[in-house]
Design goal:
It is found in: Nucleus. One of its GO terms (biological process) is regulation of DNA-templated transcription. Its EC number is 2.3.1.48. GO terms for molecular function: histone H4K16 acetyltransferase activity; zinc ion binding. InterPro entries: Acyl_CoA_acyltransferase (IPR016181), HAT_MYST-type (IPR002717), MYST_HAT (IPR050603), WH-like_DNA-bd_sf (IPR036388). By secondary structure, the chain is α+β, with helices and mostly antiparallel strands. It has two domains: about 220 residues, Gcn5-related N-acetyltransferase (GNAT) (Aminopeptidase, 3-Layer(aba) Sandwich); about 130 residues, no CATH class. Helices cover about 30% and strands about 20% of the residues. The chain contains 14 helices and 16 strands. The strands form five sheets. The protein has a five-stranded antiparallel sheet, with helices on both faces. It is elongated, with a radius of gyration of 27 Å. The N terminus and C terminus are likely disordered.
């Protein structure tokens, strides 16, 4: 469902009193936050962590007597001062534009800025809350993912990073965005259907002015970023779904997109995972994502959106109740690192490790009779594990796992679009090769 619009003057905190987020982060909120609440368009909610917004902007120029340099030692000293402050955020409320993520502590300036975006939307000069250079890589049922170059759109990505740090504990890149790409998730409300005219009296249903506002027909829900060149094969650097839109499986959608964009199922693609170490919340989310991904694989479904590009050659056995596979085989078929496969299987509780065996192999010289005694060489087998599909079924039932992938292959666009594969599981290219060989 699309987010419900809330008037700014009547906006209430998304994290109500008694929320587990409030109780768990109470001490952190008092010690480190420099901003109390943010107003993102028509939504207002509490922040979780400190973010290095420049003091001379969020508090006014009169509060800063020294020149502000983002990321400098002075900036770090300011962060330390905030951490040991009186316990109250220095900026009670920060207004953030939902279109470009520019910020101001002044409501009047915020209203004027929003009026500019509203006018551009009404004139058709602006249609989405992303830069014009953004490239759409995925779209399905109103949700879209846009690729934004951190080098080309530095200001947008810097503002997005500063806003994201308010809800991320470990994010460290704010200003040097040139080596990253950002993938922004948006939701666009579907076009309203024309009501059918009926005879007789009837009460017209009132609609909120904010719900019909052209500014909020398309909103940013979250984002993830990744390095342009990662020596550790990371397919994601940081990920965030904004607090008002959490608990809607949107994080699973972004994770699935990050794996798809790594191109792991294609020749030359990269098998990787998120940048580590993960935060406590990130690890919990990824363990769930990895577990569902492996469950889909063992239940005969696709681990990723595109099943047939990887699994059309999968061997079928007569005794399919139990098979033995190595960690590397599972990783190769799901696009996951071996360590992530093991972590997910341990989390699921379905992992049974088969101890490695040592075989004695007679050398070729003895086999040919060239030596009297011969030589015996020890060959070490790779450790394997036993997976019972019945345990996968039980795990899926206990955790209400949806075996449908969080992304749809039909939704990917451009170079990531659906590959041409027929119902038999053979691609057009392979079919052409076979016809050529027969000819």
């Amino acid at each position: 469902m699309p987010p419900v619009a809330v008037p700014i003057e009547n906006a209430t905190s998304v994290l109500q009193e008694g929320s587990p987020h409030r109780s768990r982060r109470a001490s952190l909120r008092v010690l480190t936050r420099n901003i109390g609440r943010v107003v993102l368009g028509n939504l207002a909610f509490d922040t979780w962590y400190y973010s290095p917004y420049p003091d001379n902007i969020i508090l006014g120029p009169e509060t800063s007597t020294t020149k502000y340099t983002p990321g400098s030692a002075a900036d770090l000293r300011q962060a330390t001062a905030h951490a040991h402050g009186a316990g109250q955020p220095q900026c009670e409320r920060l207004y953030v534009c939902p279109c470009c993520f520019l910020y101001t502590p002044k409501e009047h300036d915020f209203a004027q800025h929003m009026a500019i975006h509203r006018a551009r939307r009404e004139q058709g000069l602006e249609t989405q809350p992303v830069p014009e250079s953004a490239v759409k890589v995925y779209e399905w049922e109103g949700h879209a993912v846009w690729e934004i170059d951190g080098e080309r759109e530095k200001l947008y990505c810097q503002n997005l990073s500063l806003f994201g740090k308010l809800f991320l504990e470990q994010k460290s890149v704010f200003f040097d965005t040139s080596g990253f790409k950002y993938y922004v998730l948006t939701y666009t409300k579907p076009e309203p259907s024309v009501p059918v005219a009926t005879k007789g009296r009837g009460r017209k249903r009132s609609s909120s002015v904010l719900e019909d506002d052209v500014l909020y027909q398309s909103q940013v829900l979250g984002f993830f970023s990744k390095e342009n060149l990662s020596w550790d094969a990371n397919n994601l650097a940081c990920i965030l779904v904004f607090p008002p839109f959490q608990h809607r499986q949107l994080g699973q959608l972004l994770m699935a997109v990050s794996y798809k964009l790594s191109g792991w199922e294609w020749e030359g693609g990269v098998i990787g995972g998120p940048e580590k170490p993960l935060s406590a919340m990130g690890r919990k989310s990824y363990l769930r994502f990895w577990s569902e991904r492996i469950a889909r694989f063992f239940m005969g479904q696709s681990a990723d959106a595109d099943a047939k590009t990887v699994f059309y050659k999968r061997k079928r056995t007569l005794h399919s109740r139990k098979e033995e596979m190595t960690v590397k085989e599972i990783g190769d078929r799901t696009g996951m690192l071996g360590e992530d496969v093991v972590a997910a299987l341990n989390e699921m509780g379905i992992l049974e490790v088969v101890p490695s065996k040592r075989k004695n192999r007679i050398s070729s010289s003895e086999a040919n009779g060239n030596t009297a005694q011969g030589e015996v060489e020890a060959e070490q087998e790779m450790a394997s594990m036993s997976i019972h599909r019945s345990k996968v079924v039980d795990w899926a039932a206990r955790h209400n796992v949806n075996l449908t992938s969080p992304v749809r292959e039909e939704g990917f666009l451009g170079e990531w679009a659906l590959s041409d594969v027929d119902e038999s599981g053979v691609s057009d290219a392979e079919d052409a090769d076979s016809n050529e060989s027969l000819a």
